[in-house]
């Protein structure tokens, strides 16, 4: 089968197409013929030698990627909830070796969900890691409630644009930050307010926030503490918080998740599938690439200016 191998950590030139054997599956796995792959910042950072690179060093070959949508062509003996021909999607083996940059992927059945018939494979593939991150942040880490005031940073990005839609679905009052160019996009997702981070200091614009989804990193976490209620919640997605930042969160008495790592979970994927099927949540795909254009897709993510999601179509 055709696969994209990472020869060594570094530039996109190290992503090369190779033919390797189709994977065999375990009893609790299914073999998926991949139709679409979603690309995330963690893919890019790992390829560069950061993020999950340390845990990948001993793999040979290294195959990046976790987000897939496709059709089941084989099932393990212990799999009873899927059959050959089922169209599925999910985030596979995160934070392990997902091996999603391939024509066929072996995936634990419990990490997948049936793709709604009314959405395309690329739409489903986009709504995996990013949508799961937003869903798990609000329902498992932070327990967002109806009526809560939520501040979502980088609301036009992959995680952010799903977070706006999911927070509104859960009944929150949503404030999103982005550049002015993406104001209409964010308000169109359902946000109640928009803040232009380039010309406005968000801590001067809002207060009494119940929940902050912090997706930027650096000093943005400390700044976000200033707008939270004393018992508010902040979920931090980027790693690398300083001890000072953690200390200030503890002093303020907020509920903090200093670094949330999304988890592969088929039951959560079913929730996302339901929202997609009903049109409550929509994937915004800013650009699609072919399998052979994987380096260009990485460079697009690396630019830091992607609105919504980038998807590879096989």
Helix and strand layout, with pairings?
Blueprint: E1 2-6, E2 15-19, E3 29-39, H1 41-48, H2 53-56, E4 67-75, E5 87-91, E6 104-108, E7 112-114, H3 121-126, H4 129-141, E8 149-152, H5 158-169, E9 173-178, H6 183-188, E10 193-196, H7 202-205, E11 209-214, H8 220-225, E12 228-236, H9 243-252, E13 255-257, H10 266-278, E14 285-290, H11 294-302, E15 309-313
Parallel strand pairs: 8-9, 8-11, 9-10, 11-12, 12-13, 14-15
Antiparallel strand pairs: 1-2, 3-4, 3-6, 3-15, 4-5, 5-7
Can you give keywords for this protein?
314 residues; alpha/beta; six-stranded parallel β-sheet; 29% helix
**Structural Rg:** 19 Å
Total of DSSP H or I helical runs spanning 4+ residues: 11
Shape: globular
Spatial separation of the terminal alpha carbons: 12 Å
What is the overall pLDDT average? Answer: 96
Q: How much helicity do the residues have?
A: 25-40%
Q: What is the helix/strand order?
A: EEEHHEEEEHHEHEHEHEHEHEHEHE
Indicate the multimeric state. Answer: single chain
Unreliably modeled segments: none
Percentage of β-strand residues? 25-35%
The total strand number stands at: 15
Q: How can the largest sheet be summarized? A: 7 strands, mixed
Structural class: alpha/beta
What does this structure look like?
The chain is an alpha/beta fold and 314 residues long. It has helices at 41-48, 53-56, 121-126, 129-141, 158-169, 183-188, 202-205, 220-225, 243-252, 266-278, 294-302; strands spanning 2-6, 15-19, 29-39, 67-75, 87-91, 104-108, 112-114, 149-152, 173-178, 193-196, 209-214, 228-236, 255-257, 285-290, 309-313. The strands form three sheets. Strands 3, 4, 5, 6, 7, 14 and 15 form a seven-stranded mixed beta sheet that branches. It has a six-stranded parallel beta sheet with strand order 10-9-8-11-12-13, sandwiched between helices. It has a two-stranded antiparallel ribbon with strand order 1-2. It is globular. The chain starts with a strand and ends with a strand.
């Amino acid at each position: 089968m055709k696969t994209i191998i990472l020869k060594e950590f570094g530039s996109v030139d190290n992503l090369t197409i190779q033919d390797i054997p189709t994977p065999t599956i375990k009893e609790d796995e299914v073999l998926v013929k991949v139709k679409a792959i979603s690309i995330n910042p963690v893919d890019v950072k790992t390829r560069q030698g950061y993020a999950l690179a340390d845990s990948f060093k001993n793999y040979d070959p290294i195959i990046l990627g976790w987000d897939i949508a496709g059709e089941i062509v084989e099932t393990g003996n212990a799999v009873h909830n899927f059959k050959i021909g089922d169209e599925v999607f999910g985030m596979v083996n995160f934070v392990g070796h997902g091996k999603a940059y391939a024509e066929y992927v072996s995936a634990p059945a419990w990490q997948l969900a049936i793709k709604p018939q009314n959405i395309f494979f690329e739409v489903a593939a986009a709504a995996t890691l990013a949508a799961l991150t937003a869903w798990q942040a609000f329902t498992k880490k932070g327990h967002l409630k109806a009526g809560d005031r939520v501040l979502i940073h980088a609301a036009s990005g992959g995680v952010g644009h799903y977070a706006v839609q999911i927070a509104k679905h859960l009944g929150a009052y949503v404030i999103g930050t982005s550049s002015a160019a993406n104001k209409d996009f964010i308000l169109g997702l359902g946000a109640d307010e928009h803040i232009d981070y380039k010309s406005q200091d968000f801590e001067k614009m809002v207060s009494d926030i119940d929940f902050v989804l912090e997706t930027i990193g650096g000093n943005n976490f400390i700044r976000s503490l200033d707008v939270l209620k004393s018992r508010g919640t902040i979920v931090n997605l980027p790693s690398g918080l300083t001890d000072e930042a953690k200390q200030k969160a503890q002093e303020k008495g907020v509920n903090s998740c200093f670094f949330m790592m999304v988890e592969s979970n088929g039951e959560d994927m079913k929730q996302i599938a339901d929202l997609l099927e009903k049109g409550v949540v929509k994937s915004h795909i800013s650009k699609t690439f072919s399998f052979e254009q994987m380096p260009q897709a990485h460079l697009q993510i690396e630019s830091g200016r992607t609105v919504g999601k980038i998807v590879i179509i096989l």
